[in-house]
């Protein structure tokens, strides 16, 4: 009983006694009155299977036809709600036609306007400007005059620069050194302008026109050197080259 109840394979009970019920009849999957009935149940008739299969096939095709018919009607309703191609392009086509007509008129108006401006400029042109040969001759003359004016300006600038250079050279101490004078330089290259600035001991630099030498001084004063009063008076009266 437990094995029949736990079996995964379908069990058919067919004891053969119609009036008697055994315990296996209660746990079996199906009870047959006779062994022949159990065999018919276990092995169905081919004709019945074909009939059942044909019925299922018919039901499948009918259901599929209904399904596709339903969605076909629904799709047709959606398509009827959509605008046609002519309706979609009606407004852009009308706008394009209007712009085309306006563009043609605008081109004609613009052409007439430009032609009028051109004729106006032609009338205002001087006959002398229309003479090409004379215009070329005038251009050559202006070019020659401009070249001469440029050369004169360059020469004038050169003369001014030379005069400024001569003036600068005449006021420079180098021109004085060129005439034979010597520039005495003390510490930190400061020029020695007075005798009191002359160091008693140490080194000084003597700058000539063509070079410079360093000399050492000793603690000596010339007899002809002026006293302090004379130095003070000379300091007040004498000018400077620097």
Description:
This protein is mainly α. The protein has four domains: 1-43, no CATH class; 85-125; 128-171; 172-217, no CATH class. The chain is built from nine helices and five strands. The strands form two sheets. Strands 3-4-5 form a three-stranded antiparallel beta sheet, with no helix packed on it. Strands 1-2 form a two-stranded parallel sheet. β4 and β5 form a beta hairpin. The longest helix is centred in the middle third of the chain and has 40 residues, at 85-124. The relative contact order is 0.03. The mean pLDDT is 78.
Quick description:
The chain has nine helices and five strands. With 242 residues, the protein is mainly alpha-helical.
Summarize the SSE layout with pairings:
Layout: H1 2-6, E1 12-13, H2 23-27, E2 30-31, H3 35-42, H4 46-81, H5 85-124, H6 127-130, H7 132-171, H8 173-178, E3 183-185, E4 202-207, E5 212-217, H9 228-237
Parallel strand pairs: 1-2
Antiparallel strand pairs: 3-4, 4-5
Shape: elongated
Strand/helix succession? HEHEHHHHHHEEEH
Mean pLDDT rating: 78
The total strand number stands at 5
* Beta-strand residue percentage: 5-15%
Low-confidence stretches: none
SS content category: mainly alpha
- Taken together, the total number of domains comes to 4
Numbering strands along the chain, what is their spatial order in the largest sheet? 3-4-5
Number of helices: 9
What kind of sheet is the major sheet?
A: 3 strands, antiparallel
Measured on Cα atoms, how large is the radius of gyration?
67 Å
Helicity range: 55-70%
Distance between the termini: 143 Å
């Amino acid at each position: 009983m437990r094995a029949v109840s736990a079996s995964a394979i379908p069990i058919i009970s067919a004891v053969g006694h119609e009036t008697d019920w055994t315990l296996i009849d209660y746990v079996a999957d199906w009870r047959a009155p006779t062994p022949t009935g159990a065999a018919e149940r276990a092995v169905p008739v081919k004709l019945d299977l074909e009939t059942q299969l044909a019925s299922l096939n018919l039901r499948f095709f009918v259901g599929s036809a209904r399904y596709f018919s339903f969605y076909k009607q629904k799709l047709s309703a959606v398509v009827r709600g959509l605008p046609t191609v002519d309706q979609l392009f009606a407004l852009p086509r009308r706008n394009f036609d209007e712009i085309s007509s306006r563009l043609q008129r605008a081109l004609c108006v613009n052409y007439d306007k430009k032609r009028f401006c051109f004729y106006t400029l032609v009338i205002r042109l001087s006959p002398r400007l229309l003479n090409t040969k004379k215009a070329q001759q005038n251009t050559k003359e202006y070019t020659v005059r401009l070249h001469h004016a440029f050369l004169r300006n360059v020469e004038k600038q050169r003369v001014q620069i030379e005069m400024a250079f001569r003036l600068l050279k005449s006021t420079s101490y180098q021109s004085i050194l060129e005439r034979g004078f010597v520039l005495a330089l003390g510490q930190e290259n400061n020029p020695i302008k007075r005798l009191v600035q002359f160091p008693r001991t140490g080194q000084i630099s003597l700058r000539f026109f063509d070079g410079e030498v360093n000399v050492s001084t000793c603690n000596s004063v010339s007899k002809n050197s002026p006293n302090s009063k004379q130095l003070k008076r000379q300091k007040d009266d004498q000018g400077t080259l620097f």
